[in-house]
Structure formats: C-alpha cells, structure tokens
Design brief:
49% of the residues lie in helices and 3% in strands. The protein is an all-alpha fold. The two termini are 23 Å apart.
C-alpha cells in the first residue's frame, strides 16, 4: 500500500516534468492571440492533437479558435487576470460549437493561463478527478471547485493543475492508499461511477 508521500514523489518523478514540458509549448506563443489560437487548436510541437481533444476533431477545434479570436476583439484584456475569467471566456466560445465538454474547456483555459503566467490555486473537479478527490476521503459537498489548501499534505504543495493531474492519474491508487484519518466520502473504485450535482459521471 502506497502512502500519500509515495504517490506525491512518484508523480514528481514520472509526470511533473512531462507536464511542464507540455505547458512550455503553449508558453512560447508570440502574443495573447497566438496563445489563444494554440490553446484551442490543442496541438503539440509535432502538430498532434492532444488525446483529450481528439474526439472533438480538428475541424471543430479550428472553428472554436476562429470564434475565440473574434470574441477576443470584444473582450477587455484586463479581464484575463485569473483562471476563472479565462475559463469563462473559453466557455463562452465553446458554447457556440458542438462537441466540446468540460475537460476541453478546462484544458484550453489552462493553456492560456500558463501563457499568462498564472498559477492555479484551485482544483476543478471533473470526470476522473472527482473520483481521485473522493478517494482521499474528502467530501465534494456540492462543490465543483476545491482550494488547494484544503488538500492534505504533501498534495497541497502542488499547484491546482498538477493536483488535478495527480488525482486523475492516481485515482485508483489513492483509493487504496494509507491515510492518517478515516475516509468519510463513499466513493466508487474501479469499474464504478458516481454522479455529482451536475449529473457528471466520474
């Protein structure tokens, strides 16, 4: 059985640097418009679409990018001062294009956020992330956004985006990890599902 520290260190060793390398590609945009275009297209340095957005398809990604750039012309840049405002901007855009889900909304907003140099202080619960959160013994309590400071050590040493990665990747390991307090959240393990207040399945 792995401890929280074991999982944290394993994430740092196997995932952290890989994720930062992926983020660095989006940080290299020439300007905000270029950053937004790259974020919506969801392509890496080799021109491959990120696995999370493959089901959306290049055509819809390109359409969303065009809409976003037009939308930007009517949006005051000063509004882009935190992740929540960027997330809302992306949501306004993808609401105009079918085939985008909450994960795509989050991913695109995160890429723009990385370009602007903001650090996430919250974790957005969606899909597998919610299962990982429950596996820690924490209760969702009708919330979709959890401050990093509410997580146990050593996980709260991570930024919100890395903690989101860890919860999703290690959700099954976390369910069997050792803890120093009783788990109060009844949450499914492998091959099960739970549904939150918005009807999203973990």
């Amino acid at each position: 059985m792995k401890s929280y520290t074991d999982i944290y260190e394993e994430y740092h060793k196997n995932v952290y640097l890989y994720a930062e390398k992926e983020y660095s590609w989006y940080k290299q945009a020439d300007n905000l418009k270029d950053a937004i275009r790259k974020a919506f297209l969801s392509e890496d340095e080799q021109g491959k679409v990120h696995p999370h957005q493959r089901r959306v398809g290049r055509q819809r990604l390109a359409l969303a990018a065009d809409i976003a750039l037009k939308h930007l012309d009517t949006q005051c840049v000063i509004d882009f001062d935190n992740f929540n405002s960027i997330y809302q901007f992306v949501q306004d855009v993808i609401n105009k294009v079918e085939g985008f889900g909450e994960l795509a909304n989050y991913d695109v907003a995160l890429r723009i956020t990385k370009y602007l140099g903001f650090q996430l202080q919250e974790v957005y619960l969606h899909a597998g992330v919610t299962i990982g959160f429950c596996a820690l013994g924490l209760n969702v309590k009708e919330r979709d956004i959890i401050p990093v400071e509410e997580f146990p050590e050593p996980f709260k040493q991570l930024s919100g985006d890395h903690l989101e990665n860890l919860l999703c990747i290690y959700k099954e390991v976390l369910a069997d990890s050792s803890v120093e307090f009783p788990k109060t959240c009844i949450c499914p393990k492998t091959n099960s599902s739970c549904i939150n207040k918005n009807g999203r399945v973990c």
